[in-house]
Amino acid sequence: MLRQTVLFEGTNASGTTGLWATNGTATGTHELTRIIGANAGGLQPDGFTVFNGEVLFGGADLAGRGLWVTNGTAAVLAEGAGRRGLGDRRGGIVAGRVHRRANVRG
User: What predicted TM-score, i.e. pTM, was given to this entire model?
Assistant: First the structure.
């Protein structure tokens, strides 16, 4: 949960798996859309972890899978949080720092 919002993987009417958010009500449940860099087949998010007021998760990008970060809105959703080489989903948070096994792309 992030600021009274729960993020989860959901499927829309087109059958695409994406990132959804809810505050627990029907009107407060929606898909985060227009995500730049997401795979056309859907973001397919998994492995959600709250860290420093944001949510880190694995998601499908144009080249495969990558590490994504959001504050719960599509407006602040980015792959790799502006850091290169975070393409591998393995890793975790140790001593307050995010650790990922890097696959450098380009």
Answer: 0.70
Q: Which residues contact 5 (CB under 8 A, 6 or more apart)?
A: 21, 22, 23, 72
Q: Note the pLDDT of residue 61.
A: 85
What span, in angstroms and rounded, lies between the C-alpha atoms of 35 and 97?
26
The first and second tokens of residue 15, run together, are 């059958």
* Rounded Cα gap, residues 89 and 106, in angstroms: 18
- CA dist list (Å): 75 to 28, 46, 70, 78: 17, 19, 8, 9
Position 82: which residue type?
G
Q: Are 105 and 85 in contact (CB under 8 A)?
A: yes
Q: Distance between alpha carbon 6 and the CA centroid of its chain, in Å?
A: 12
Q: Residue 71: which pLDDT band, with cuts at 50, 70 and 90?
A: confident
What's the CA gap between 17 and 11, in Å, rounded?
A: 4
- Length reported for the chain: 106
Q: At which residue do the structure tokens 């450098």 appear?
A: 104
